[in-house]
Design goal:
It is an enzyme of class 1 (oxidoreductase). This protein has helices at 15-32, 36-42, 47-56, 74-87, 89-109, 112-124, 235-269, 281-309, 315-340, 351-363, 368-380; strands at residues 129-132, 148-152, 155-166, 173-180, 183-190, 196-200, 212-222, 227-232, 271-272, 275-276. The chain is of the alpha+beta class. Strands 1-4-5-8 form a four-stranded mixed beta sheet. Strands 2-3-7-6 form a four-stranded antiparallel beta sheet, covered by helices on one side. A two-stranded antiparallel ribbon has the order 9-10. Helix 7 runs parallel beside helix 9.
Length: 386
């Protein structure tokens, strides 16, 4: 048991779950930690190379079955997300968008031909996917999307724009959501289709070790079989978001844990006024409060994972997890920064990088306010969205 496992949760995991966690942790230690500070500072990341390495371990679409996917449990997938985000939120975003958004959309709503075309290559990391829902003027309100798809004979013509799309500049396929005369529909759009352009978004202060872009769709002509046949209505993309939000419930705790481990090591080795920082009551109070919130978040994530594996996880329960765990992870990162003092803003330590990343995690896949309203609707039976 580590010092941060206050409630001895490790025995609650199966041997397979612990093994998957440990393998991903070792990958992060070997492949990510030596380089991630430089990737973040330089605003670049070898995403395709990393995707192939993740694919070799079965991390891409790992909770899906068939088509080269690992078919792992929801808890195992969550543990993998926690270890990836302990390295950097951008790495977990790469895996989440690939597996829980793009691959899941095709796996759940695509035709057999679409699944065979894309999923095996995406599972190995040879093909990269992205998920085009957010628009420049429509983030939390996807029902107001302006991207349109109209029929032209047997084809579809897509026009519009998508914004803040992880993986877009390097993607081979985009799952694009558009409004049609029959309602919202999803399309598997090869990124080399004429009329599709992707522009990388630069000057980010968060998720700098992640590739983010804008997609422009200029009267893109697609064959009829590009439509995901079972993606009917807004519930389809929202179900994909629920999948991705579940990974965030776990992943955000990885960033928090890495900050807390850093602060604990710093406080026990840094001497001020003749004794270690960890020997002062105020420092111990900070560490204790953060450790309690971390383990509470881990209990919540584990409970949601067991519900998912039992087929009983509901969207509003995922909202509870995302709302609580990201909010507390960000608070932990900020508090850890105070323990490190001025060193907390240095790139030599991961704390400020995690804090900056968690500002994005707080917003994407549903802001805290959106999740508060989801929980509020569950409590009251009344929608406050409009």
């Amino acid at each position: 048991m580590t010092a941060l496992d206050l409630l001895d949760l490790d025995p609650s995991l199966s041997a397979e779950e612990r093994q998957i966690r440990d393998v991903v942790r070792q990958l992060v230690d070997d492949r990510v930690r030596p380089h991630v500070a430089a990737w973040y500072e330089e605003g670049r990341v070898p995403a395709r190379e990393l995707a192939r390495e993740f694919g070799k371990l079965g991390l891409l679409g790992m909770h899906l079955t068939g088509y080269g996917c690992a078919g792992a449990s929801a808890v195992a997938y969550g543990l993998a997300c926690q270890e990836l985000e302990a390295g950097d939120s951008g790495l977990r975003s790469l895996v989440s968008v690939q597996g829980s958004l793009a691959m899941y959309a095709i796996w759940r709503y695509g035709s057999e031909e679409q699944k065979q075309r894309w999923l095996p290559a995406m599972a190995t990391g040879e093909a990269i996917g992205c998920f085009g829902l957010t628009e420049p003027d429509h983030g939390s309100d996807p029902a107001s999307m302006t991207t349109r798809a109209r029929r032209d004979g047997d084809d579809w013509i897509l026009a519009g724009a998508k914004m803040w799309i992880t993986n877009a500049p390097i993607a081979d396929v985009a799952v694009i959501w558009a409004r049609t005369d029959e309602g919202v529909r999803g399309f598997a759009v090869p990124m080399d289709t004429p009329g599709v352009t992707a522009r990388e978004i630069g000057r980010k202060m968060s998720l700098r070790a992640s590739v983010t872009g804008e997609i422009a769709l200029d009267d893109v002509r697609l064959p009829a079989d590009a439509q995901l046949p079972d993606a009917i209505g807004l519930k389809a993309p929202l179900s994909c978001l629920t999948e991705a939000r579940y990974g965030i419930v776990w992943g955000s705790l990885g960033a928090a844990r890495d900050c807390l481990e850093t602060a604990l090591a710093y406080a026990t080795s840094r001497t001020q006024f003749g004794r270690p920082l960890a020997g002062f009551q105020l420092t111990q109070a900070k560490l204790a409060d953060m450790a309690v919130e971390l383990v509470k978040g881990q209990l919540l994530a584990l409970h949601l994972g067991r519900l998912a594996d039992a087929g009983r996880l509901r969207p509003e329960q995922v909202s509870v997890g995302k709302l609580n765990n990201v909010r507390e992870a960000l608070a932990i990162a900020r508090q850890c920064r105070t323990i490190l003092g001025a060193n907390g803003v240095s790139g030599e330590y991961p704390v400020m990088r995690h804090a900056n990343n968690l500002e994005s995690v707080l917003t994407y896949e549903g802001t805290s306010e959106i999740h508060q309203l989801v929980v509020g609707q569950r409590l009251t039976g009344l929608s406050a969205f409009a």
